[in-house]
Amino acid sequence: VVTVTQTSFCRKLLESSCAYVLIVTAVYWVSEAVPLGAAALVPAFLYPLFGVLKSSEVASEYFKDTTLLLMGVICLAASIEKWNLHKRIALRMVMIAGAKPGMLVLGFMCCTVFLSMWLSNTSTTAMVMPIAEAVLQQLICTGIADSLEDSLTLICTGIADSLEDSLTVDTQDEESGQSEHPSQKLCVIPAPPRKPKIRRDSLYPTNRDHMICKCLSLSITYAATIGGLITITGTSTNLIFAEQFNNRYPEAKVINFGTWFIFSLPIALIMLMLTWIWLHFLFLGCNFRETCSLSKKRKTRREILSEKRIHEEYQKLGPISYPEVVTGIFFVLMTVLWFTREPGFVHGWTLLFEKKGYRTDATVSVLLGFLLFLIPARKPWPSEEEDPLAPMITWKDFQRLMPWEIVILVGGGYALAAGCKVSGLSMWIGRQLEPMSGLPPWYRWRCYCYYCLLYGHVQISDMVKAGFGVNLIGVFVVMLAIMTWGEPLFHLSEFPTWALMPNVTGSL
Question: Which stretch is the leader sequence (predicted)?
């Protein structure tokens, strides 16, 4: 009895210690009293002090297979940014969409979603925003010029009309034989029309221009988040989930690049269209015919000049270069190798090797990323002024984009998860959720979705209004995916055998 009591006390003490570390780390993350990366190091010293995990065990959690996967993707991202391939993709898609406000927003959202599928959300936003800013500045400058031109036109028209009216009165007086003093004739000239008011208290010519700028800026940020859902490498949260799932259920073999893509792509496409409609309604109104028409006859002077500016920016890139071609080939090759490694419905290229489970998506990512340091950035027949040995990317290019803070942040999440598993805290939390087992599956999934949404916070009122609608759209689309194409893809109606695990705390 004493032994059982001691074991129970030790187990509760371990769970309490782990919960304390979890709460302390979460408070630091939410309050941002210290940098996020520094807060992620809290489990590295508290877990060993409280006896939850050994120092060597905690350290191993901070560098995982997903870290290598991220490093390889960053190598490709460095090459994309260095050779301006992202600008070419974004400008080309915007040129296709046109300069109508609604279509312009949709065009930027589409190219942002595409880039965010492969790059981090932060990197994608940082790449696309300067392009969008150039277009917005053109809209603002054109709006001011239009306002001034309209003012001068109205003034000149008013004076001309006044002079015409004056001459008409003189002619009538001469015909009637009446003559007036010259000062009396001035009373006949009406005052010229007032100049249209330009918003001098703001950076924007009109309130509509301000709304367009808001809509475009927010649409890019939300599109980056939506694009990050599509692939495992799209955002760090996907990497954390995939790593934890595969480590906890090594026999599952259900989460890979292919299955993730098949499940998430329809979600992202539906969310993209609904988010665009919501932001358009919120900032641009409901007149989609006016803001989304592709007819050339409906284009205003401002839209024509904006399209001209976009074409000029694209022309500055010049013809597609050799490094851009190489980067594009690596981009396609990495995607194909990820898809065909273990598709699930057919045998992948890993069948060519005898030992199974040794090659992952990180293997492909790091291999192609490493080759970018070796392949010359010039053609085999360089000119005299070109360095034939200059590689596609250098270590400085990689270092400039490598988010080490995110790596440590993700590692801290892995360490917290490992502590929860070893201490038994995760089992205790699972037991607290047992009363929900009697609820319908769709209701439980909806509760989980809303629970995950309550860690986010915004301070700007525009983001609150826009984000509220986007969050509801996300919950609705995820629920739709789980109850339709997600069920046959992952067999969600059946409890899998690989999920049956022994009680970890039984040996404590």
Answer: none
